[in-house]
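Reviewers of the previous submission asked for a worked example of the structure-prediction workflow described in the proposal, so we include one complete record here. The input consisted solely of the amino acid sequence. No template or homolog information was supplied to the procedure at any stage.
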Amino acid sequence: MLEKTEQSIKENIQKAKAGNQMAFSSLLDTFWNDVYSFQLLRTKNENDAEDITIRTFSKAFDKINTYDEAYEFKTWLITISKNLHVDLIRKRKRSLLDEMDSHGEEVKRVLDETPSVEDRLITEQNLANLLRDIKKLKPHYQKVINLRYFNEMSYADIAKELNEPVNNIKVKLLRAKKLLAEIIKKK
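From that input alone, the workflow returned the following structure tokens.
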């Protein structure tokens, strides 16, 4: 029985490669539950699992001619499905970050304007000493400190200036301020 099923799957793959719609339909019926169950475990969400499963079969049928018979058809489908899920996660992260960028101006302004302990320590220093201490930092840290505190640029403007993501700038500034605060404390 199993051998007969495997044989009919191989035949359906050949027919599908030739453009036979009934063969596509048969393959979808045969493997739908495997792909859907796989995605349901990954996403823990019926709508996402169904959406990704639909897109998996759509992509598989678009690319059926690239299928290599040396591999299991189910494995090939699961690989496509896994990649679509990864793409979906990336897209959601990107749109979430974009949304934060568009709606998060107030949050950014608060983050930008709230001085930290390190900020206060830095501003309390004599300017000449501070400049000398800043020069002890690595060049990329010097640059973000200078842009932030002497050019009074926002995170977004620094990101544009250095052609880096805003989050990278925030991390660099945080690191630069901590290193600078350590230099000042050691004196």
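The mean pLDDT is 82. We consider this example representative of the routine output the project will generate in years two and three.
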